Amino acid sequence: xxxxxxxxxxxxxxxxxxxxxxxxxxxxxxxxxxxxxxxxxxxxxxxxxxxxxxxxxxxxxxxxxxxxxxxxxxxxxxxxxxxxxxxxxxxxxxxxxxxxxxxxxxxxxxxxxxxxxxxxxxxxxxxxxxxxxxxxxxxxxxxxxxxxxxxxxxxxxxxxxxxxxxxxxxxxxxxxxxxxxxxxxxxxxxxxxxxxxxxxxxxxxxxxxxxxxxxxxxxxxxxxxxxxxxxxxxxxxxxxxxxxxxxxxxxxxxxxxxxxxxxxxxxxxxxxxxxxxxxxxxxxxxxxxxxxxxxxxxxxxxxxxxxxxxxxxxxxxxxxxxxxxxxxxxxxxxxxxxxxxxxxxxxxxxxxxxxxxxxxxxxxxxxxxxxxxxxxxxxxxxxxxxxxxxxxxxxxxxxxxxxx
Length: 404
Fold this sequence. Notes:
By secondary structure, this protein is mainly alpha-helical. The protein has helices at residues 2-12, 21-27, 32-60, 62-82, 86-103, 106-117, 124-153, 158-175, 191-205, 209-228, 232-242, 251-275, 277-282, 288-310, 314-340, 348-376, 379-392, 394-397. The longest helix is centred in the middle third of the chain and has 30 residues, at 124-153.
């Protein structure tokens, strides 16, 4: 299963559009505020779908949830390819949100359930970090392929068409997972009792201070990271145009090379940091300390990115964004490990769906806000404001050592 888990992450992250999604929207004539609204629509829909899909994963079977996730992604890619209109983009975001809602938390729960069955739960940070590194390798390769696609077709929309291929393979991969990874599905013949049982366990999550703090810590960083990370693309675009290199090429080709190569390096670094998350965590007696430290450092990096963009220090801004990606990939396995120590494995998909739901709420609030500030005051000021707000939320998100 280790190889299948890694292959899942690799295929899932062959999203050739990821390094160019903001540039795709700008090319279609959208403002930063409109782009922010699209992200808000996506996140609000994820928020609406999140708990029901988490319950379905825990009560009806996780494999079915994953199959529905990839089917929704495919519908989204087709719409993005065929249309160039805000409202059709919004519809595509709804399908994408459905895929995210079915997928988020579900596959992590399958991994953690597998480790429990093999009695190797103590390796969860290292194991999840290594599977996540395969995802980042997929992202790195996808950035290089995206450069070739843009050069060949001359349009950003064709990268959505290309993304259909790996996602079809991912569908077949999900179908090949063993049935026991569906989870402990009880009362299959009576949904009412099954949902009631899951709901009781779900509400118990909020009675545990450590689980609430762990979920908040992960969600605040994740939400603001999602809302701000894509602004690396216009920064790279401005840098590509300003640099006195590749002047014999058209602007779009220069932008494609600079953005694609930057994301290739970024995702390679992310793969290395994900793989090293276990070693990083082993330096500490408990997960609380590195989780809190990286939370604060993440806020400093957002402020650094904002100041650098404002004063046109593009290289420093790019380095700050790379630092944010590194923090995200170090933190993700740590947060999953901490949360899994505070809630029952039987409701892991639901618990992680709660975390993902809070991420969507934060992203839905901040994405249009950042977009509006970027249109009015510039990207730099928008990121500075976000960094200040983020650091101000640390007192409510600080986690403590779990008592044995």
